Automatic annotation (TrEMBL):
It comes from Pseudomonas putida. GO terms for cellular component: pilus. Gene3D superfamilies: TcpA-like pilin. This is Type 4 secretion system PilS N-terminal domain-containing protein. Pfam families: Bundlin (PF05307). The chain crosses the membrane at residues 12-34. Keywords: Membrane, Transmembrane, Transmembrane helix. Signal peptide: none annotated. The lineage of its organism: Bacteria, Pseudomonadati, Pseudomonadota, Gammaproteobacteria, Pseudomonadales.
Length: 176
């Protein structure tokens, strides 16, 4: 008597599960990398916009001698303001990569005698708050994170401790 053994055709359930799991792992890895790269890109955009905005304001008011009359609308109309900082939702308003709202980026002269000005970034997520603070705090005369002063000796530590886990972090940078 001769036994006829048929070869199995197709994949087993275990093989299918392994392939699906492998695809899921690759997808999760790709999404994680994309989110990390996207966040890093937003931070770089914000830092570049912030330093550009500061330079534009200083240049605009250089001949005046003080910053009296500084408003978002005035800065918005300047041709030198980084395009990525101009809100596409609110006319004459400035924005950052995490928010298009009118209150996301504010500029105003500091208290009288208007010898300096403030740039406020509001509605920042924690990661962006820490990264931006760590990168720019030495470029400004003074800076606060959610009301806590950032100094050259406590910069990164203050940012890490003062930035909250909400998307409501506020950075106020003062420039003379």
């Amino acid at each position: 008597m001769q036994l006829h053994i048929k070869r199995q055709a197709g994949a087993t359930l275990i093989e299918i599960i392994m392939v699906v799991a492998l695809i899921a792992i690759i997808t999760i890895g790709a999404l994680t990398y994309y989110n990390s790269a996207s966040e890093s890109s937003k931070v770089q955009e914000a830092v570049g916009g912030l330093t550009g905005l500061s330079a534009v304001i200083r240049n605009q008011f250089q001949s005046q001698g003080d910053y009296q009359g500084l408003t978002e609308a005035l800065v918005f109309r300047s041709t030198n303001v980084p395009v990525n900082m101009k809100s596409t939702v609110n006319t004459d308003q400035l924005r950052h990569p995490w928010s298009q709202t009118a209150a996301a980026v504010l500029v105003a002269p500091a208290a009288s005698p208007y010898a300096s000005f403030n740039i406020t970034f509001a509605e920042l997520p924690r990661g962006a708050c820490v990264e931006i603070t760590s990168k720019v705090y030495k470029s400004f005369t003074s800076m606060t994170v959610n009301g806590t002063a950032v100094t050259p000796t406590t910069g990164a530590a203050t940012a890490s401790l003062s930035c909250t886990n909400t998307n409501t972090n506020v950075l106020v940078m003062t420039q003379s």
